[in-house]
Amino acid sequence: MRISVILAHPDNRSFNHAIAETALKALTSNGHHCHYHDLYKEKFDPLLPSQEIPKAGNIDPSIAAHCQQISTVDGIIIVHPNWWGQPPAVLKGWIDRVFRPGVTYEFEEGDQGEGIPVGLLRAQRAVVFNTSNTNAKREIEVFGDPLETLWKNCIFGLCGIHHVYRHTFSVMVTSTLAQRQGWLEHVTATVHKYFPSV
Amino acid sequence: MRISVILAHPDNRSFNHAIAETALKALTSNGHHCHYHDLYKEKFDPLLPSQEIPKAGNIDPSIAAHCQQISTVDGIIIVHPNWWGQPPAVLKGWIDRVFRPGVTYEFEEGDQGEGIPVGLLRAQRAVVFNTSNTNAKREIEVFGDPLETLWKNCIFGLCGIHHVYRHTFSVMVTSTLAQRQGWLEHVTATVHKYFPSV
């Protein structure tokens, strides 16, 4: 299978990088072909310009390449830290620009854009790995863990992916080496479960 | 009073621009001094770099200016479309870079960053205006309206602003001129209520 792995963290020594590299290793060992995007490293431009908003808009070629790829892969893995209950801006902009009408969703004929869109993504499974410095109880009780609905309903659900596994590793800042090693084992096990050997 | 007005929309003919301009007019007529940031027009760079993450990190001078301003204003008005249950990337990045430790929040002594931070913003009131093409019932039932907790709890609540009014104008794409005129009257009335004449 072909799997996209999308990473958003500015520090290439980050645990997010370790998660992505662990996932890539497990995917490759299972015989999958990976499309890896370290969005910071690629200097992805996250600003959706006005002319790209319409369905028939004038799209930058680099965005068209991202669109072509995401619409044809069999699975998607997203890796990012929880910053303010949301992804880093670079990943938000990747969604803003790549998850276009006609690529990841579309409105039915006669719908002017106010109705319920149809998801177009071919992928049937997505996995989201997050890191956080907030403990799980506080994340739910104080903040409502918005990343849960953002990824499962607002983004992947709308685009036709209904099998989404999401896991947050926390608390990063006080974690021990043994904990982090265990977390990477969880990453490997998750990849084996959701994207098994072909 | 000094009020920051932060706008995130790429099209300067957008209704979001009309909202921001209406808010500015009402604020000015009430005798307030406005700091207006049209983030797209300013070409705000939303990518938080690695070296800016630590509290004592090396901050770009343009970001330091934003930090100085946001930490001293008496009120904040945010205007943006609902894109995937979140703000556009340019505004997400403004939060990522400007809402820094030591500027909008800080951890208490002895806390390594895993605890409950103290809000530092001087402003006591914030207003968030959103536009959307999803009707209110579907926004709540299917998506859980994540922007509500994002602004009220994850961002402003954490930074010490507990009086937050948020309103979404929808459905934009099928709205009539008369509706949009009424919506701008709502903007004016809201500004008069939350930031009355001094």
List keywords for this structure.
alpha/beta, 37% helix, two-stranded antiparallel sheet, homodimer, Rossmann fold, 6 helices, 198 residues
In terms of DSSP E residues, the strand content of chain A is 15-25%
The computed structural class of chain A is alpha/beta
Which chain pair shows the most residues in contact? A-B, 43 and 43 residues
What is the averaged pLDDT score of chain A?
Answer: 97
- Multimeric organization: homodimer
Helical proportion of chain A, percent range:
25-40%
Main CATH class of chain A: Alpha Beta
Identify the overall geometry of chain A: globular
Distance between the termini of chain A: 7 Å
The CATH H-level homologous superfamily of chain A: Flavodoxin domain
Poorly predicted sequence stretches spanning 5 or more consecutive residues of chain A: none
The helix/strand series of chain A, from N terminus to C terminus, equals EHEHEHEEEHHEH
Give the count of structural domains of chain A. Answer: 1
Q: Kindly identify the CATH topology of chain A.
A: Rossmann fold
By CATH, the architecture of chain A is named: 3-Layer(aba) Sandwich
Backbone CA Rg of chain A: 17 Å
Q: How many strands, which pairing sense, and closed or not: the largest β-sheet of chain A?
A: 5 strands, parallel
Secondary structure: number of strands of chain A: 7
User: Strands across the major sheet of chain A, in which order?
Assistant: 2-1-3-6-7
